[in-house]
Amino acid sequence: MFVLGGSASNGLDIPISELLGATRAQLVTTSFPDGEIKVRVPEEVGGDIVVVQSTYQPQERHLFELLLISDHLRHRGYEVTAVVPYLGYARQDKSFIPGEAVSIHTVLNMMRCAGIKKLVTVNPHKEDSLRHFQGEVAIVNAVAALANKVKDMVRDPFVLAPDAGGLELARKAAELLGCEYANIDKKRDSEGKVSIVGTHGSGFGGKDVVIFDDIISTGGTIELAARFAYGMGARSVCAAGVHLVMAGGAKERLKNANITTLFGTNTVPCSDAQIVDISPEIAACLR
Questions:
Q1: For the residues 94-110, what does the mean pLDDT come to?
Q2: What is the C-alpha separation between 267 and 187, in angstroms, rounded?
């Protein structure tokens, strides 16, 4: 087996290849003066090929690099397993207003057309959206690894889901932590402003609240939930996200909301956080 690391592997190709006892090769990526990219796959690459390439920002560049690699290997007669730890465009899984393109459908179709036979990803925004991939799909769940890290550092946890959509993730985390959980009930006014109207679940006064979510992007949802938790008597509030995208001033928002600790995985590069390595879970899936 060959493990081929793309420029957005975030270093995961190294431990994955070591855990699998596989040969590792590094993709060579260069750019033309006008910004177009070209890739070169080492000639020795062959056999069962696993390409590790996340699609975090800049999403288009990293996605197109993955497509170039896969299509090149397809023309050389190889089948590709793509490990895409963070799957970009997964949140646009439907037309939220009439006329919107469903981006994740397009992304999955391009991957399949480029020769990717199997897709391995970590906690996609909605698992059901991956049914549009016309190949084999494997989903790695990072919640247990995150919960174990939280358990080592949080004294009296209470898991809080920032909305009803995150309830299943919160339930699983709470089960692993041996604590209670709840989800926030939000409403949105005619101008799109979001406010919290309450929670479904037990109270968390005096507890160390852990807000669990799959993606922390701008941090707005986490900030709102943290302020609410403190207002309801939480002793401390930390946040745990599988994918720490951290865009548009997210770090400052979490700091202002008095988030004591930020937990995440290495699907996306992020500093100033307690990072959990999920390469063992990915390697186990590939086995």
A1: 88
A2: 31
Query: Could you tell me where the beta strands, DSSP code E, fall in 123-245?
Result: 136-140, 157-161, 181-188, 194-201, 208-216, 236-244
CB 39 within 8 A of CB 28: yes
Give residue-wise pLDDT tens across range 32-87: 999 899 998 887 777 889 999 999 999 999 999 999 999 999 999 998 999 999 99
**CATH code given to domain 2-141+280-286:** 3.40.50.2020
Q: To which residue do tokens 């170039």 refer?
A: 68
Is the CB of residue 3 less than 8 Å from the CB of residue 24?
Answer: yes
> What is residue 10's DSSP assignment?
T
Host H or E run for residue 286: helix 279-286
For all residues of the chain together, what is the average pLDDT? 90
Q: Is 186 a catalytic residue?
A: yes
Tell the CATH topology of 143-266: Rossmann fold (3.40.50)
Active-site option among 186, 207, 251, 255: 186
Question: Running DSSP on this structure, what letter comes out for residue 2?
Answer: E
